[in-house]
Amino acid sequence: MTQEQQENKNPNHDDPASPERYHAWQFIPFAMPASLDDLHGKPDAVFTLPITVYWGPRRPPFDMMKTGDVIRAYTEIVSHGWVDMQCELINQELLIEHWPSLLLDKRRVRPAWEERFPELKARMHYQHIFLLAPEQ
Fold first, then answer.
1. What is the pLDDT of residue 92?
2. How far apart are CA 127 and CA 105, in angstroms?
């Protein structure tokens, strides 16, 4: 490396934590309803998600009577769905119940939803205490 190249080299170029380095997740938009009361999904619904929201290899219908389907569908809808879809498909009680299990981006999506909806953060706290509580 020449002297000029050495002087112009950005020392933070390879540092993933550098404020000069950007990551795709920083630019992916996500949406949130104004209130959890806006969520009117049916607790026994069965639906498929558009490819813009769920692009998994299998595209089965999601059955809200099955815990695994609730977790997968709600993870995708919270992360990639628009407000109208969230309001139509997410059931408020199911969301609160399964919130701790959703696989959400912990840098942006989860903190934003928990800041807007303290009852979700409280559910995480409750789940944490419940899991750590000694057995009687």
1. 98
2. 18
Secondary structure (3-state) at 11: coil
- The rounded distance, in Å, linking the Cα atoms of 55 and 34 is 26
Q: How far apart are CA 1 and CA 135, in angstroms?
A: 63
The confidence band for 2, taking pLDDT boundaries of 50, 70 and 90, is: low
pTM for the model stands at: 0.75
Cβ-contact 48, 59 below 8 angstroms: yes
Residue 47, SS3 per DSSP: strand
Report how far residue 23's alpha carbon sits from residue 60's, in angstroms, rounded to the nearest whole number.
Answer: 31
User: Which phi and psi angles does 80 have, rounded to 5°?
Assistant: -125, -10
